[in-house]
């Protein structure tokens, strides 16, 4: 029997954020979950641009040419164009990425012997393009702010009269100036083409996302449970150790090299990761877990996030454009006094307890806690609302292949068993009847551990600095069935 696990140490894909991966590095951190160690690529062609140094020059790769203005504020203002030929060129089946692609095409082929047999491959063209871009090392960079999107090398039209030409020249000059200082730049190595990029999604929350109203209505119950389980129980050193030993990766830090902008003061406690429930942690927070399920939120992942007092998160992207980020602030020190702030693109807002916000973290963003106490939010990454249900299922299928690589086995029995296991990992776990700090002594319930894997779900690792799940994304609470029953699928969206 042939197993794909033999590929993992040499694979070219590594997950960052909610995205599939980062090209050019090992897959160990990808399979290990959110905080697995990553290693910088030694291959200069593995990244389309260098988001760190070497600013102020033109960088040429096999996929695109980018120009970076000289501005030392941590924002890479280079732009790229998706390579058209890459999107339509099949990957080699001798690579892990190629095997995932082959499985994806088989699963969603019109004549395939599977639940998606009525689908057509053209329905997942954007997902295939995204996967091929990633495998080729393409990283999408785009200016997504206002100002008409004028390029610096765009020339005035010759047929304009003098007055109009001067006016247009002045407008263009203002646009160039705005773009040279704006923070509204998207950076997405995991990039599905054709999706709208904008900083804040207020209209969607207010007028289209029924799940947002339902989840917002559960704010008080979620907050009370969180205080009871995560704060009251851990107010003493013994209680803190009990919480750590009862849960998985409790308050783990963002320890990957790509997540270093988060700093040491940002920690997470995960409930849902890439569509797979953490049964142990869900049992510690059954009220919150049920609220997430019952709201129908199209979540890719869900976790509690804390930010240390007097700390800041530097400008960065979360690398993925097909999920958005949602915050439900639970505890904001000095609430309403503008001491805890989040900036996305060029707009800064303060967290307000109980006020749900939705924004795009493939656009540069940063945060600050200028208070003397810890800030806590319930954080979700949700599918972009412009994805189709078929695309969501296809993206979830890719996540499952990377979490359970035996799905790619050439042995039919092994592959089918792995698929059943992957589906079971997305099932909502059996939960205790109530939430209380006394539940810390429970057995965790639900499923997990054993079986096929590579995922972190069945392993209890715990502690503030274990390097477990460091902080970014996952996948939907169901790829098809539950999303449809709860109304959270279809055109779902994220972080």
Topology diagram in text:
Blueprint: H1 28-32, E1 58-60, E2 65-67, H2 84-87, H3 96-107, H4 125-136, E3 140-143, H5 162-181, E4 185-188, H6 202-207, H7 210-217, H8 219-232, H9 237-246, E5 252-253, E6 266-273, E7 276-277, H10 279-284, H11 286-295, E8 299-307, E9 311-316, E10 323-331, E11 340-344, E12 347-350, E13 357-359, E14 365-369, E15 375-383, H12 389-403, H13 412-426, H14 481-486
Antiparallel strand pairs: 1-2, 3-4, 5-6, 6-7, 6-8, 8-15, 9-14, 10-13, 10-15, 11-12, 11-14
Region (Disordered): 34-93, 143-183, 426-495
Biased composition (Acidic residues): 150-162
Biased composition (Gly residues): 441-456
Outline:
By secondary structure, this protein is of the alpha+beta class. Helix content is 29%, strand content 15%.
Protein architecture, described:
The chain has about 500 residues and is an alpha+beta fold. The protein has two domains: about 5-150 and about 165-190, no CATH class; about 200-395 and about 415-485, B-lactam Antibiotic, Isopenicillin N Synthase, Chain (Jelly Rolls, Sandwich). Helix content is about 30%, strand content about 15%. The protein is built from 14 helices and 15 strands. It has helices at about 30, 85, 95-105, 125-135, 160-180, 200-205, 210-215, 220-230, 235-245, 280-285, 285-295, 390-405, 410-425, 480-485; strands at about 60, 65, 140-145, 185-190, 250-255, 265-275, 275, 300-305, 310-315, 325-330, 340-345, 345-350, 355-360, 365-370, 375-385. The strands form four sheets. Strands 5, 6, 7, 8, 10, 13 and 15 form a seven-stranded antiparallel sheet that branches. A four-stranded antiparallel sheet has the order 9-14-11-12, with no helix packed on it. A two-stranded antiparallel sheet has the order 1-2. A hairpin with a 2-residue loop joins strand 11 (about 340-345) and strand 12. Helix 7 runs antiparallel to helix 11 (about 285-295). The longest helix is centred in the middle third of the chain and has 20 residues, at about 160-180. The radius of gyration is 22 Å and the shape is globular. The two termini are about 40 Å apart. Mean pLDDT is about 75; it is low at about 1-15, about 20-60, about 150-160 and about 440-495.
């Amino acid at each position: 029997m042939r197993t794909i696990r033999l590929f993992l140490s040499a694979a070219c894909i590594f997950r960052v954020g909610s995205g599939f991966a980062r090209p050019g590095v090992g897959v160990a951190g990808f399979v290990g979950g959110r905080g697995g160690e990553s290693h910088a690529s030694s291959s200069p062609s593995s990244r389309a641009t260098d988001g760190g140094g070497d600013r102020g020059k033109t960088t040429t790769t096999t996929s695109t040419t980018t120009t970076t203005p000289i501005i030392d504020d941590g924002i890479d203002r280079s732009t790229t164009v998706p390579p058209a030929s890459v999107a339509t060129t099949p990957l080699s089946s001798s690579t892990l990425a190629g095997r995932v692609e082959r499985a994806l095409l088989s699963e969603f082929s019109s004549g395939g012997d599977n639940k998606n047999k009525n689908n057509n491959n053209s329905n997942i063209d954007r997902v295939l393009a995204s996967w091929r871009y990633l495998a080729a090392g393409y990283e999408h960079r785009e200016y997504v702010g206002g100002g008409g999107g004028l390029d610096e090398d765009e020339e005035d039209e010759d047929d304009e009269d003098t007055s109009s030409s001067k006016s247009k020249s002045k407008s263009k000059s203002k646009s160039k100036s705005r773009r040279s200082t704006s923070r509204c730049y998207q950076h997405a190595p995991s990039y599905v083409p054709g999706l709208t990029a904008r900083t804040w999604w207020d209209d969607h929350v207010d007028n289209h996302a029924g799940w947002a109203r339902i989840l917002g209505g559960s704010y008080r119950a979620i907050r009370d449970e969180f205080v009871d389980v995560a704060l009251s129980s851990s107010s003493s050193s013994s209680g803190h150790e009990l919480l750590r030993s009862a849960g998985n990766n409790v308050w783990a830090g963002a320890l990957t090299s790509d997540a270093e902008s988060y700093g040491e003061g940002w920690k997470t406690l995960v409930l849902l990761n890439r569509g797979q429930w953490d049964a142990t942690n869900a049992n510690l927070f059954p009220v919150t877990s049920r609220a997430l399920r019952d709201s129908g939120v199209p979540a890719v992942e869900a976790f509690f996030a804390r930010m240390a007092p007097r700390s800041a998160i530097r400008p960065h992207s979360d690398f993925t454009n097909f999920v958005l980020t949602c915050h439900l602030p639970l505890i904001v020190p000095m609430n309403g006094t503008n001491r805890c702030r989040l900036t996305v693109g060029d707009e800064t807002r303060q967290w307000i307890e109980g006020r749900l916000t939705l924004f795009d973290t493939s656009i540069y963003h940063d945060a600050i806690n200028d208070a003397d106490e810890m800030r806590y939010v319930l954080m979700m990454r949700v599918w972009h609302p412009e994805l189709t249900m078929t695309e969501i299922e296809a993206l979830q299928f890719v996540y499952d292949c990377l979490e359970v690589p035996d799905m790619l086995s050439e042995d039919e029995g092994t592959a089918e068993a792995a698929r059943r296991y992957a589906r079971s990992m997305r099932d909502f776990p059996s939960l205790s009847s109530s939430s209380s700090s006394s539940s810390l002594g429970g057995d965790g319930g639900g499923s997990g551990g054993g079986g096929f894997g590579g995922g972190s779900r069945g392993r209890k690792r715990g502690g503030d600095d274990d390097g477990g799940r460091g902080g970014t994304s996952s996948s939907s609470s169901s790829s098809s069935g539950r999303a449809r029953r709860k109304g959270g699928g279809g055109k779902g969206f994220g972080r």
